[in-house]
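User: Can you help me understand a structure? I only have the sequence.
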Amino acid sequence: MTGTAPEPKKESRLKWSRIARNWQLYLLVLPVVAYYILFHYVPMYGIQIAFKDFIATKGITGSPWVGTEHFNRFFHSYFFWRLIKNTLGLGLYSLALGFPIPILLALLMNEAKSAKFKKFVQTVTYAPHFLSTVVVVGMMMIFLSPRYGMVNHVISLFGGRPIDFMAQPGWFKSLYVFSDVWQTMGWSSIIYLAALAGVDHQLHEAARVDGAGRIRRIWHINLPGIRPTIVILLILNIGSIMGIGFEKVLLMQNNLNMETSDIIATYVYRAGIQGAEYSFSAAIGLFNSVVNFILLITVNWVTKRMGETSLW
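Assistant: Let's start by predicting it. Here is the structure, written out as tokens:
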């Protein structure tokens, strides 16, 4: 009878034959799969200490169960709203400024006619990505020093008074975001340049015949061509908006700017590593991960309902 589905055994044989033919690809993916299993899924076993009063000598299973006590303690603590405000504010600021700039850079480099100029711009914008966070923060401290910094020397030349940028709470978010954009915009633009390379050149030729200028071709051909890539990366960025790494924030943080620099990640570091409150810090980290997960699911659902590309 025509149109019937193949037998399960036949489907299984076909599946294993495809795997056998492409065993090199599966072998290539194996280290990545092993990495995520060992370092991302296996450690999830330790999440249960967020609901226990963890005692190192008794281990995870032997520690007494306390339920949501650590969560309640965090929700009612003095630092809760300050941490949420700082973390969310820094994440939104980074998204608003750091997400569109690599797209703009990729569009501009794609329009560059001179190959030498394009390679020069790529080298200059890619290079900061390979600097460590410690080096970047060290450069900021040198350039922004109120006594010896180049920026304050320029301010003094124009009659202004030196500013201690690293010690003022109002400057922290801007310094963090702008330095992060400088360091990552070139590297982040690579994926958009790859997507632009896949745009059909015949569309541009047809648009030129119709009299469309460069701006119109960018707006009506290039941007729609890379829109699926933009949407996917936007979903991923929003899904990690509360997951700001603590390394750079911790290096820039001091007692004077703590009002705006204290985020969930640095608080978890102080509570868990310095204060040895492992259960309490695990509860805060779990709360942060759940918020990121909810944001990811919500944004993916919204983009799917709007008819755009989604993760699933």
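Now, to help you interpret it: The two ends are 35 Å apart (CA to CA). The chain has 16 helices and no strands. Let me know which part you'd like to focus on.
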